[in-house]
Design goal:
Layout: E1 8-10, E2 16-18, H1 29-51, H2 67-76, H3 81-102, H4 106-127, H5 133-147, H6 152-168, H7 175-188, H8 199-222, H9 229-252, H10 255-269, H11 271-288, H12 297-319, H13 326-336
Antiparallel strand pairs: 1-2
Helix pairs in contact: 1-3, 1-9, 1-10, 1-11, 1-12, 3-4, 3-7, 4-5, 4-13, 5-7, 6-7, 8-9, 9-10, 10-12, 11-12
């Protein structure tokens, strides 16, 4: 276990920031950027489910399949959700260390945190059936909390076994426990704290996963109507998720990556707020853009880009003046059961 110093705190994005009067354990900006990146892909998948009812299996009226759906299915769907889930496990471990430094009963604090997340997920389910917050809260209570007592040498293989078992039965939401445990293990083994020094390892992992992603995606496309199609989709999605995330981490180490992080990191730091508000915006804008019961995927993609651009600007503006996003701040107050300040002190 790598404990967080008592004078440091974590954000809801899972990155760690020091108190204003110390320099301990700096925020891992790459985690925020990676979470913002995952949020972009998830939004592209969510909007069709929320406001477009024509499915890939139905195909266009003239037969065949929509090109935009093909792109989403084989390049986006199932590729970003694993990243988001893994990072949830990371943020859980980081927050547990902080709670241990602040409370005599850190797991009770975490339980309350997960209960609050579950309540928000129940409300969000009314607008977006199939959303992730409620399953995250449930698996957090059933898997992450018990695993927090286990040594790291058990958590890692348990995550691998859970992930392999989920793949055998078709993936989907059952991938969450294994990804949670792998995120927890990444913190316990010090991977997150040494991320900036692992560039060669990340490059090797990217090369292997990127090479494997191509045949895996071809296999997914060839079996999309077969009983084994769900298993192929789960494997292809996980491999692509590794390639996407490691590729982004490599890019973030460049000059262009520093610019890209200015867009992605604020999105990731306010992931909860942006995830929920994107649903509200998409549902409100769908009828105005004629997306209900349609196949206007071009308009859908434009809508997603506009939502993300607006959220990135708003997140950057908000975080310049506040420590936490709106929903992140509410979540934090309910977690600690006390009202905390949110405005940033200015010179």
């Amino acid at each position: 276990m790598i404990p967080t110093p008592a004078h440091a705190s974590t954000t809801e994005s899972g990155a760690v920031v020091p108190d204003s009067d110390t320099g301990a354990r700096r925020r891992v900006v790459a985690l925020d950027a990676l979470r913002g990146f995952a949020l972009c892909g998830i939004l592209l998948v969510n909007i069709p489910w929320q406001i477009i009812t024509i499915s890939m299996e139905q195909g266009p009226p003239s037969g065949g399949r929509y090109f935009a759906v093909e792109v989403l299915e084989y390049l986006v769907h199932g590729r970003f959700f694993p990243i988001f889930s893994f990072l949830f496990g990371v943020s859980f471990a980081l927050f547990l260390d902080t709670a241990a430094a602040r409370s005599r009963h850190p797991r009770l604090v975490l339980l309350r945190r997960l209960v609050v997340l579950g309540a928000l997920g129940v409300a969000h389910q009314q607008l977006h059936p199939g959303e992730a917050l409620l399953p995250y809260a449930i698996f957090g209570v059933l898997v992450l909390l018990p695993a927090s007592w286990l040594p790291r040498w058990i958590v890692l293989p348990a995550g691998v076994v859970a992930l392999a078992g989920a793949i055998l039965v078709g993936g989907g939401l059952l991938l969450i426990p294994g990804l949670f445990l792998l995120g927890l293990a990444a913190v316990r083994f010090g991977v997150i704290d040494t991320l900036s020094r692992r560039r060669k390892q990340i490059a090797v992992l990217f090369a292997v996963s990127a090479a494997a992603a191509v045949p895996a995606t071809v296999w997914q496309a060839a079996t999309w109507t077969d009983p084994s199609g769900e298993r192929a989709a789960a494997i292809a999605g996980l491999i692509a998720a590794v390639a996407y995330s490691t590729g982004l981490l490599l890019i973030l180490g460049t000059r262009f990556g520093a610019v890209l992080a200015r867009f992605l990191a604020p999105l990731g730091r306010m992931a909860l707020t942006n995830y929920v508000t994107a649903t509200l915006i998409a549902i409100a804008a769908g009828p105005l853009l004629g997306l209900d019961n349609s196949a206007h995927y071009g308009r859908m993609i434009v809508l997603a880009v506009l939502i993300l651009a607006a959220q990135a600007l708003f997140s950057r503006h908000w975080l310049a003046r506040h420590q936490y996003g709106p929903l992140e701040w509410v979540w934090r107050c309910l977690t600690w059961w006390t009202r905390t300040g949110n405005r940033r002190l200015t010179a």
